[in-house]
Amino acid sequence: MQLLKNKKWVLIILLCWLGYFSYGQEGYYEHPINGVNSQWHRVDLPVEAFGRLQNSYASIRVLGKDENGVGLEQPYLLVKNQPRTIMRPVPSTIINRTRKGNDYYFTFEISDEPMLSQINLDFGNDDFDWKVLLEGSIDQKEWFTIIKDYRIVALPGKYRFTRLDFDAVNYPFLRAKINAKEKPILNAVTINTASITTGEYEDWSPEIISHEPIPNSKNTALIIDLKKTVPVSYLKMIPSVDYDYYRNFSVSFLKDSLKTETGWRERWTSVGNGTLSSFGSNVFPIDEELTSKIKIIIKNQDNQMLDIPAVEVKGAKHYLLVRFDKNPPYTLQYGNHKLNYPKYDLVSFKKNIPENPSKVKLEKAAYKKIRKEDKSTPLFTNTLWLYLLMGLIILVLGGFTMSMIKNTKEN
Known about the structure:
Blueprint: H1 2-21, E1 27-34, E2 40-44, H2 47-50, E3 61-65, E4 71-73, E5 76-81, E6 85-89, E7 92-100, E8 103-110, E9 116-123, E10 128-137, E11 144-155, E12 159-161, E13 163-169, E14 173-179, E15 186-196, E16 201-203, E17 208-213, E18 219-238, E19 246-260, E20 263-277, E21 283-299, E22 310-323, E23 327-334, E24 361-362, E25 366-369, H3 383-410
Antiparallel strand pairs: 1-23, 1-24, 1-25, 2-22, 3-4, 3-23, 5-22, 6-15, 7-8, 8-14, 9-13, 9-15, 10-11, 10-14, 11-12, 16-22, 17-18, 18-21, 18-22, 19-20, 19-21
Helix pairs in contact: 1-3
């Protein structure tokens, strides 16, 4: 048994060696940088870079030269400049609940005086389809329309949409009027002020959009093919129908593709789910991922499939804030997946980075193979030795396999 254990360990070691030496050719992509005339500059990542990066962006490097011509890293801060809306609740109370015929009025007083842009209504009713008129007032004598005929819906045990979104206003009093046959039971209200951060979205126009039924199911697959790998964090579906609907769905991003004997096999990763409805905006923020294709599984139940002729796909603008400390020529490099994420001091001193530094220009990328002398473990300088070693490993593995089979039969 001890001999068998030793052979297992030898087998594991040989397999590790084989995996190490059969690893693909190492290399990276390099853009010469032009226009560096100060210490700080902005370097926009080119679109083609995303297909050669990992989600960690660890392989990005900016290099200059020292006095002896040796390449030295220039520290940078990676910025994912995505617009964000931060909602903050403000102190408010329901001060009046009144009725006139089938019109029910709810008046809210806001203790603070911020810009208001959203109201979440919590009703005790579980089955309704109402339209809301929202008004604002300074003195409760004169009321001004903010939104009208705004639809809120609750489907028993299935779906609820009771959020009012509107352009920012500043009133100490708000009033919601609901026309309903049954009494709306308003349990609570949350009024929010919106703080919108600055940022830049890049539009990724789909090359192909297909929407087909999934065989032997009541679901359909909406495939959005971007034809290039890009960062995606915003998705909007635009159905073209004239009737009410709500459909649950899930979203997956293409991770990679593997070539098999029967063709290409796609591997997908789930990124979230939601509800597509005729009541909301159908905008779905997503935690950023790099992908070239999006698959949305829509659960139609017994309904006909929706006509979705258009979608919007966006991602945050990505750029580097670089401190150029050494001498030209400068280059942007990426794609060497053996590199770890760099750690620079400037991450702890973001306040010292000047606002809006000027952009530099990147020349066309060139692929560079890593020279053997640059590798950390250049055990073999001639590929013939590698082939001989691999052949020897195969022979030894075959011998060990036959020996273990023989020992097993004897035991």
